[in-house]
Write a structure and sequence with these properties.
The chain is mainly α. It has one domain. The protein contains 4 helices and no strands. Helix 1 runs antiparallel to helix 2, helix 2 runs antiparallel to helix 3 and helix 3 runs antiparallel to helix 4. The longest helix has 20 residues. It is flat and about 30 Å long. About 10% of the residues have low confidence.
Length: about 100
């Protein structure tokens, strides 16, 4: 569990960095404010899951990570996007 917690924290830091460095206004839906909101949602879901690793919190964490990646990962290369998606997919949300 300690290793998983460390892994999730590193992932959270990386995603938070991406929210600052790669949110660019490319259309009316994607704005830095939206990325800030998605980043906050992701951060809260991460904290909640780390404090109480239930299946419900895990699923909320994964959904928040995928939303953030889908909407704010505009500066990622396809390889980087796949690396982050693989990390999200590796989170064990089954009981």
């Amino acid at each position: 569990m300690k290793k998983l917690s460390y892994y999730l924290m590193v992932f959270a830091i990386c995603m938070a960095f991406l929210s600052v460095s790669s949110c660019k206004k490319s259309n009316d839906i994607l704005t830095p404010d939206n990325c800030d909101e998605l980043s906050a949602t992701y951060s809260n879901a991460t904290s909640t899951y780390l404090m109480d690793p239930t299946q419900e919190n895990c699923e909320a964490f994964v959904q928040a990570a995928e939303n953030f990646l889908d909407h704010c990962g505009v500066g990622l290369t396809p390889a980087q996007r796949q690396e982050y998606q693989d990390a999200i997919d590796a989170v064990p949300c089954s009981n």
